[in-house]
Amino acid sequence: PLKFKDIEVNPVQDGPFAALIFKVVVDPFIGKLTYAKVLRGHLKAGDTIYNGSAQTQERVNHLYVPAGKKQNEVQEATIGDIIAVPKLKDSRIGDFLTDPANQLATKKLFDFPEPMISKSVKAKNENEIDKITNGLTRLTESDPTFHIEFNPETSEIVISGVGNVHLEVMLEKLKKNFGVEVELGKPKIAYRETITKKTNAEYKHKKQSGGHGQYGHVKIELEPLERGKGFEFMDKIFGGAIPKNFIPSVEKGIREGLKSGILGEYPVDDVRVILYDGSYHEVDSSDIAFQIAAIQAFKIGMQNGSSTLLEPIMNVEIYVPEKHAGDVMGEMNSKRGRIQGMEPTENGFQIIKAEVPLAEILDFSSQLNSLTSGQGYFTMKFSKYEEVPRNLQEKIIEERKADLEAAKKAG
């Protein structure tokens, strides 16, 4: 039997169909073409197949056998054949395709390398942004080590790969296959803001301009929460100082205020807001009046609460030859990293585990190549947010304000 991890396939002619995808090509004209090798049984045009990893069924409308640069359409393929199937939506390299009645594999067969470098993508022509996004997304289907994501906090498209050369190759494919060009830059860091001390704030929104006016008055208490706790809203109004039907308006206003802090207009996190008092007007109070009052009170509270910046911290595992471990650890220390430990591997490598601010490790891939003569690699995953050292915050805020001003001028 053929063995793939803990899955066995008995390669017999009269068994139920099974094939393994080894290549996916995305063409802007013919679409997606999935290449697979038939390991068992046979497949006919018009059959329905099952993808174990995606857990979906799809119909094979056309079936091809590649011959050099040509694709010869056939009505049936059998064990040992290399086949090309167009327009399979959910196919990925390493997936099994099988007879729906004899399913295989609902997990990944192969562990592909994790991305080591990320870059932001900027369109050379803003009118082509949809075309670029579509092209990059299609390219991820043909390369499991190439990733794309949209960061809503920084409003950036970010692509990731195993190195600079890898990203350059993918952008060449983007240009050749989809006719669009982009510029790469360093991704923006998704900083957050929070407070460092407990404080109170009050705001009265009062406006009269003939007829019904606007009136909303809130008193709130803000207090910092532990990292990762997010946001909490508590209603401690007693005696009807603010009618129950306006409490959701106050919370809505606070949540609106969370979207933009006072330091660099970053989202606010890890704060509890307690609504404990206020007042209303029987005629002039409204939903919008209490929202405005809440937003303004929250901003005052952020100013009074000694706001600070938070930055994302990554869990990093670096695989390096033992002779280079000392140099790499020194580099980690220079990047405000905290070494969590080391583990030897069977092949003479060391795994260095560390917590490192994301801002410090964006360009680490090229540095690691230099330190280890191209032999080292690393993986990283988000861990948590921590306060940015005070001596670094001023520069970050200045750069952020310059970016916001430039974006404002650009419209």
Could you explain the architecture of this structure?
There is one protein chain. The protein is α+β, with helices and mostly antiparallel strands and 411 residues long. The chain folds into 4 domains: 2-98, Elongation Factor Tu (Ef-tu), domain 3; 117-185, Alpha-Beta Plaits; 193-306, Ribosomal Protein S5, domain 2 (2-Layer Sandwich); 312-387, Alpha-Beta Plaits (2-Layer Sandwich). It has helices at 129-142, 164-178, 247-258, 287-304, 325-334, 358-361, 364-372, 390-410, and strands spanning 2-4, 7-9, 18-27, 31-40, 42-44, 48-51, 56-59, 63-67, 70-74, 76-78, 82-86, 96-98, 117-123, 147-151, 156-161, 182-185, 192-194, 199-207, 214-224, 231-235, 271-279, 308-321, 338-344, 349-357, 377-387. The strands form 7 sheets. A 6-stranded antiparallel β-sheet has the order 7-6-12-3-4-11. β18 and β19 (214-224) form a beta hairpin. α1 packs across α2 and α3 crosses α4 (287-304). The termini are far apart.
Q: Unreliable runs, pLDDT <50, ≥5 residues?
A: none
Question: Using only CA atoms, what is the Rg?
Answer: 28 Å
The rounded distance between the terminal residues' Cα atoms is 63 Å
- Structural category is alpha+beta
Beta-strand share of residues: 35-45%
**What does the oligomeric state look like here?**
single chain
- Largest sheet properties: 6 strands, antiparallel
Major beta sheet, strand line-up: 7-6-12-3-4-11
Number of helices: 8
Number of strands: 25
**Mean of residue pLDDT values:** 90
Rough outline:
globular
CATH class of the largest domain: Alpha Beta
CATH architecture of the largest domain: 2-Layer Sandwich
**What count of domains describes the coordinates?**
4
Assign a percent range to the helix content. 25-40%
| CATH fold call of the largest domain | Ribosomal Protein S5, domain 2
Keywords: Elongation factor, GTP-binding, Nucleotide-binding, Protein biosynthesis
Protein name: Elongation factor G
GO molecular function: GTP binding; translation elongation factor activity
GO biological process, one term: ribosome disassembly
